[in-house]
Design a protein that fits this description.
This protein has strands at residues 6-8, 13-20, 24-26, 29-36, 39-42, 47-59, 62-75, 80-88, 92-94, 99-107. The protein has one domain. The protein contains no helices and 10 strands.
């Protein structure tokens, strides 16, 4: 398992654009765009209102907005998602208990 390099703890509330070449974990409240070249995790206490983009996205908290996973999106048991999900074919994993309200789109992974 890869260590998380960027961390927003439960007592933090932030707004803006967050970008990293490494992994990010959010257990606080974040409003805005979050992107990573590796992974983004929203923990059970985390709340994100905005857009998340990464190859691997794991959601166990609350997200309102757009999720774009180029490899895999995991919706864990405490997840509450309202918005749009974009993943490649076979790139969505749902655990029992997770909730999703919105639109789901399968994106092409072919490269020309």
């Amino acid at each position: 398992m890869k260590l998380v390099k960027g961390y927003l703890g439960p007592d933090f509330q932030m707004e803006g654009n967050l970008s990293s070449s490494d992994s990010i974990r959010i257990d606080g409240t974040y409003i805005g765009m979050v992107s990573s070249e590796h992974s983004v995790t929203v923990g059970a206490l985390g709340k994100v209102k905005g857009q998340i983009e990464a190859p691997l996205i794991q959601i166990d908290g609350l997200v309102e907005g757009k999720l774009k996973a180029s490899r895999l999106l995991e919706v864990l048991k405490n997840a509450r998602i309202e918005g749009d999900i974009f993943t490649p074919s076979g790139g969505l994993k749902f655990m029992i208990g997770g909730e999703f309200k919105g639109n789901f789109f399968v994106i092409s992974t072919s490269q020309n």
